[in-house]
Structure formats: structure tokens, C-alpha cells
Design a protein that fits this description.
17 strands, alpha+beta, 8 helices, 5-stranded antiparallel β-sheet, globular, 6-stranded antiparallel β-sheet, 276 residues
Amino acid sequence: MRKLWFITNIKSGTATPAKADAIAALFAEHGLTLVGRTAFPNDALPTPESLDAAGVDTAVLFAGDGTINAAVAGLAEWSGAVLILPGGTMNMLAKLLHGSTDPAAIVAAAVARGRTIALPVVDLPEHRALVGLILGPAANWVRARELVRAGRVRGLFRALRHAWRRTFGRGIRLDGVPGLKHGAQAVFVRAEPGRLDVAAIDARDFRALTRLGWEWVTGDWVAASEVTQCHADTFRTRGDKPALALVDGEPVMLEPGSTIRIGTTREMFISTKQEG
């Protein structure tokens, strides 16, 4: 970890220009060379060829889950390392890799004891989810979420009405997940070493939704009574039409009968957690 390329997205949850500049200043303090910067989405993400031509050995990502996913997908076969800094809302990858959400502490620890590891991923046709995959009618809330994030009121009521109607409509059905309730409103899939953790949400009245929301905010929402948790190494979607899904929060369309399986990345992510 000597020559860095810094990728930011100031439209992500907690990333701001001031914080990005402060992090860039940290690199020099630790004797690291900042070769270049990318302000996504205004700038195109760097390619393995461009990073190699610049002599870069580490790509540093300060952004949300969607930007991180896009950047990692483009660098999947690159020989360098990737350092994730918390620039989103939940920052689940940063917590997984570092156990911390302080960028300054993470950079210092990466210089002192960073090591590269592989991560389990949710593997699906043409996409990989590093944080998680959401299937089912509840994925339709993504349009309303984006309007709120952009501060756009126009069209919000229509998006909310559409999402509400779809959420309480016909649920999702999957093959290959024993014990999973059929017709769930949402299924959250997360990769664990060697298996997929599959949690199905089925809350169809205001009381159930309120209880589920309280569990989500105050503790482990998977423990709520409206959630059924199962495990599998592979499964398939059912139906005869393409279905909306969220891959690390970003919308994609899955073809009928798509296969979702456990996968793994190469050893590319810098972790600062103590081994074991």
C-alpha cells in the first residue's frame, strides 16, 4: 500500500467534499502517494489498465454500497488491493473489514497491519452483491427512496402509492430454500462463508409492520416474528416475468428462473481487523 487512487462519491450517505479532502490529506501524513482521484458519478471509474499504467497498487473507496459495488466489479481481475472507507449510510463493509467507522483510524491501521482477504458474495447472473441482495415486491420502494434522497417532491406520491400497492400484492416465491415462507414481501440475502443467509419478511398489517420496524431500529430485525431465516448455498427465483431486485441497494432486473449462489472474490480487500 504505497501508491493510491482515491474514488469518492459525495452523493453517498456520509461522504462530503470536506471529508474527502481530509482523508486525502491523511495519505501524505502516512507517507502514501496519491496518484489520482475519481469523483463518481461525474468521472468514469478507473479501469485496471489505467491503474496499472499509473503504477497504482491500492484503490481507496470512500462511498456508499452502490458505488463500491460498481468499482469492485470493474476491478475484479485487477492485481491491486482495495481499501474500503465508510462513506455510506450503513457502512456494513467497513465494519466487516475494520470493525470501525473512523476513516483516520482505518488508514493508520491499514498502513500498520493491513492484510488482503477475500469476501463471500451473493453471486447472480451478471451481478455480485457484496453487502446483500433484496428480492420481492418491497424492492419497488427504491424509486421512492431515490426521490427522497434527491429532495424531489414531484412524483414522490406516485412512487409511494406504487410501492405500497406492490408490497401488499403477490409475494415472491423461490425454489431451493427449505423452510422459507412462500409469498414473502421481501427476501434479504447475505453471503456468509460457505453459505447464503436468507431472511424472508412477511408483515401484512400496520401492527406487524410497526413491530418489525421497531425490531429493525432497536436490535436484530431478523429475530422479529415476521421474519423467517434460512440458509442455502444456491436457489432459484420462480415466475414467468423479469423481477426487480436490489443489488447492494441498486436496482437490477432478474430474468425468470435466475440462479443465486454463494461466491467469493479474490483476495483483494484490505482488512485491519486482528486475525481470529
